[in-house]
Amino acid sequence: MIHARGLRKAFGEFEAVRGIDLDVRPGEAFGFLGPNGAGKSSTMRMIAAVSPVSGGELRILGRDPATDGSAIRARLGVCPQEDTLDQELDVRDNLVVYGRYFGIPRAEVARRADELLEFVQLTEKARAKVEDLSGGMKRRLTIARSLINRPDLLLLDEPTTGLDPQARHVLWDRLFRLKQAGVTLVLTTHYMDEAEQLCDRLVVMDKGLIVAEGSPLSLIAEHSTREVAELRFGVAEGDASHELLAERIADLGERVEVLPDRLLVYAEDGDEVVARVHERGLTPVATLVRRSSLEDVFLRLTGRTLVD
User: Fold this and answer.
1) pLDDT in tens, 250-260
2) Where does the ABC transporter domain lie (predicted)?
3) Alpha-helical segments (H) within 48-90
């Protein structure tokens, strides 16, 4: 569905995407993770055939976006990060009018609009004004609109940003059903749990490069440990700083990460770490043992410091 080799995107002297390779297979859900400025959006815009390639090779649905942009866009569905719904039209007409841009006959586009409203659970809001919808309803309507042309490839840019947990889970269910129906999904997200739930494979981008690629489970296995022990000692243990405490328990895990309010010990058995910490006479005020997550991988690969 997507094939890229040495793909680059430059804006003047600034290179946003610095030569990446990727392949997206039919029917899978593929994710882009990365901090702001990593190059995710620039890559997505090239895949959507709305931003020209600066270098390298890119094929979308087997076509070259430089020469076949219109044909590619006709087979894509795009759900942008910001809702771009028409406030002057009601919910159903947002779908009907958008479908007419693709040249879909009136009777057919009306039938598809009704099917999609049912799919995203908005049938009862068909004649409501867009401004009266909740944030979750607007996102579901935006996804419905992106499906009106029955795309082979659906691009989703941070589809659940700003939604409450209930709305996010409803949206996840709709996207999972699309994947079951054979639609290929490509998404960017800042939510690690979302990537774990939805993505078969994903890449982590940083500074315009792909720094890791694989399934969520394989990335956790490669870049983290099975468990993490979180140890909170309060402000200090006697006169010892967190750095000194980390030195005293450094041998208990594969690595120890020092945070302002706690220590993270990455190990295969978190409960054993906690027990051995107490054996050494250290008494944390709180402990938590959890499994390693995609967020641990993400922060290890891209760092915890904000990048402007």
Assistant:
1) 999 999 999 88
2) 2-232
3) 65-73
